[in-house]
Amino acid sequence: MTSRNLILATAGHVDHGKTALIKALTGTDTDRLPEEKKRGITIDLGFAHLALPGFSIGVIDIPGHEDFIRNMIAGIGSIDLALLVVAADDGWMPQTEEHLQILGYLGITRGVVAITKSDLGDAARVGEQVRQRLQGSSLGDAPIVATSVREGQGLEELKDVLASECAAASAPRDIGKPRLFVDRAFTMHGSGTVVTGTLSGGQLARGAGVVLLPRNQSARVRALQSHNQALEVALPSMRVAVNLPDVRLEEVPRGTLITTASNLTTSAALDVLLRRSSRSSARPLKTGSFVQVHYGSARQTARIRLLDRRELAPGQEAIARLTFASPVFAFAGDRFVVRDSSARATIAGGVVLDPDAAGAKFRAAGQRVFLRARAVAPDDLPILLSSQLHRDGHARSDTLLAKSNFGSAEIAEALGNGEFFQRDGLVADAAWWSALSTRAANAIDAAHAARPNESGLELTQLRATLALTDDSVLNALVADLCAHGFTRAGSALRRTAHQLSLPPPLQQKGAAIRAALAAKPFDPPSRKELARDPQAQEALRFLAKTGAAVLLNDEVALSAAAFTKMKEQVTSALRTRPATASELRQLLGTTRRVLIPFLEHLDKIGLTLREGDRRRLR
Q: What gap in Å lies between CA 47 and CA 177, rounded to an integer?
């Protein structure tokens, strides 16, 4: 049976026995640094592997000391469940509380509490204390297990409870968008740079091309390992070591994001929903404050602007903009933690609403509506779709919500509910598209009314009228109009039912030209005589466009009826034998002024062929 991959991280106060408990469970001492051995405390992230029936669990042991909260947060950004550790001889402590709040800010709702050192204290009493402290938190219903590493007490029970929680945890999601936040980087002799992190969102294959963000640096994966086992393909919720031989060690600091997406951009600002736990004892968070934002395994300085208030107190939430000194890469729905500028206190957490906020005015009416809609349910796919299309009007289906925690199949399914317009790879808000189509139809109708003698509205003019800058929108609009009562005529659009006609000021001119052509059908007046002024010239062009007249050259025009009759007579005569121009002129009773351009026209359309001074049918 294939084991499910999950990630477990410890949490809890310093010296509460997290590392000793992990060693007892896995056999691995996660304290790898000499200073950790010397001081007897965990300073940086440690890693181990726990195999339970049906599960392969990557374990991240985090430091509990308040001086290393940055390292703690870097390790729990992509975990599936937490192991909160509380010592029986100490009970609930300051870092226990801070770690619990951080887990809540990051949306960690599944976990187990281990009461350690039960041989040194009253585990039952501390268990009751812990249950009370957990009330109202994201781990409010977490099971509690008393353990003692020294006496081997409760370890098997803890494994059973962990297995039960793993079974209840959601399966790792593969949305085709792999992301690995680097939490450790080092150099191996003969291999070059190796980075480690927790893979989420998709698969990563050996030999794959990747991008390092925010540097936007391309690289190739030479090798992959998970728990010292070589891999061809790494799966979501695996601890993965990635060999990047073409990358220098200094180019992949902790916080670097590795992904396979090469067409996504970073942003210098994120619009977010900030939340402050009611358990927080930190001072109110004021707009304009500089803070430390912990996201993934990275930490960035940012300035906060609150949308509709001056400060955020414990227990409150508000929409805000985070502006960073350097670009970041995030998805809508990603969680983060906010600490004060001195990095001494955790003061808030939040979820990303707009990962590309740098291109939008924060307090613009459209952005306000967009953010407030998303703030209601930041993880709801239909709301993400409708809010973006309501704000932007349209998007390409292959890039829509590219920076979100949803895959293309999920997005396509959500778009298929009939609430959105889709054509030729374009997706649009239904109301926006309806308004655009109505404006286009009105513009075409106005062109018909103003110029009934023309084929329709030129596409260049339609684009200008609608202020369209995206070719995909124009192309989809033309295709949609042509499916609903309109026709494309060359470079123009017209209503299918539209009949060409002369505007009233030109109707008299057109009638006069028709009469002159009919009076002497085989020897009509010259075009100069027929159309002596611009209005008459426009009327003659209209008659030619609608097929009522045939323009042989710049000098001669025939009525359509005369042209057809002359053509029939010439065709009949040439069926018996070739004929000269003189013979055909006598047959038709016309002049050389008319006959020669007429015969050249027949040559041009492929009816006749000139051979010397004679013509024959082709």
A: 24
595: tokens are 């006959």
| Digit-coded pLDDT (tens) for 49-59 | 999 999 999 99
Does residue 112 contact residue 161 with C-beta atoms inside 8 Å?
yes
How far, in Å, CA of 110 to CA of 105, rounded?
13
Q: Among positive and negative, which fits the CA dihedral 462, 465, 466, 471?
A: positive
Give 139-208 as a DSSP string: TTT--EEE-BTTTTBTHHHHHHHHHHHHHHSPPPPB-S--EEEEEEEEEETTTEEEEEEEEEBS-EETT-
**CA 228/CA 240 separation, integer angstroms:** 9
Nearest to 227 by CA among 237, 212, 217, 214: 237
Is residue 93 within 8 A of residue 133, CB to CB? The reply is no
DSSP-assigned beta bridge partners for residue 335? 351
Give the span between the Cα atoms of 357 and 280, in whole angstroms: 28
In this prediction the pTM is 0.82
**What whole-number distance in Å separates Cα of residue 497 and Cα of residue 485?**
8
Contact criterion met (CB below 8 Å) for 106 and 77: yes
Around Cβ 535, how many Cβ atoms within 10 Å? 16
- Over residues 146-178, the pLDDT tens digits come to 999 999 999 999 999 999 999 999 889 999 999
pLDDT at 3: 83
User: What DSSP string describes 525-592?
Assistant: PPHHHH--SHHHHHHHHHHHHTTSEEE-SSS-EEEHHHHHHHHHHHHHHHTTS-EEHHHHHHHHT--H
Angle of CA points 570, 575, 581, to nearest 5°: 40
Q: What 8-state DSSP symbol labels residue 453?
A: T
Element (DSSP H or E) covering residue 409? helix 408-415
Using alpha carbons, list the distances in angstroms from residue 196 to 322, 403, 469. 28, 23, 44
Q: In one letter, which amino acid is 483?
A: A
Contact 223, 191 (CB under 8 A): yes
Residue 265, judged by CB atoms within 10 A of its CB (0-12, 13-18, 19+), counts as middle
Please count the residues of the chain. Answer: 618
User: Residue 564: which residues within 8 A CB-CB, separation 6 or more?
Assistant: none
In angstroms, rounded to a whole number, what is the distance separating the alpha carbons of residues 598 and 594?
A: 6
